[in-house]
Amino acid sequence: MSALFNFQSLLIVIVLVICTCAYIRSLYPSLLDRNKEGFLGLFWKASRIGERLSPYVSTCCVLMALSLLFAS
């Protein structure tokens, strides 16, 4: 089933995008900072969410991992 129609898969994709964008921004800040508007601005916004809400995002990552390991 596609990640767009399965809610758990959609949440996993969103959390992974946030984590990946925050990691890329920590390594190469200019890569995401130059695209603050338009479609690529979504990745900049995801990196800001990952930076500012990192305890909550990491908690979501752990909870998603546990749900995949034990609930599936």
UniProtKB/TrEMBL annotation:
Mode of membrane association: Single-pass type I membrane protein
Location in the cell: Golgi apparatus membrane
Predominant localisation class: Golgi
InterPro entries: KISH_domain, Ksh1
Membrane-spanning segments: 6-24, 53-71
Keyword terms, alphabetized: Golgi apparatus, Membrane, Signal, Transmembrane, Transmembrane helix
Cellular component per GO, a single term: Golgi membrane
Function field: Involved in the early part of the secretory pathway.
Family to which this protein belongs: Belongs to the KISH family.
PANTHER family reported for this sequence: PROTEIN KISH-A
Name listed for the protein in its UniProt record: Protein kish
Species per Swiss-Prot/TrEMBL record: Galdieria yellowstonensis
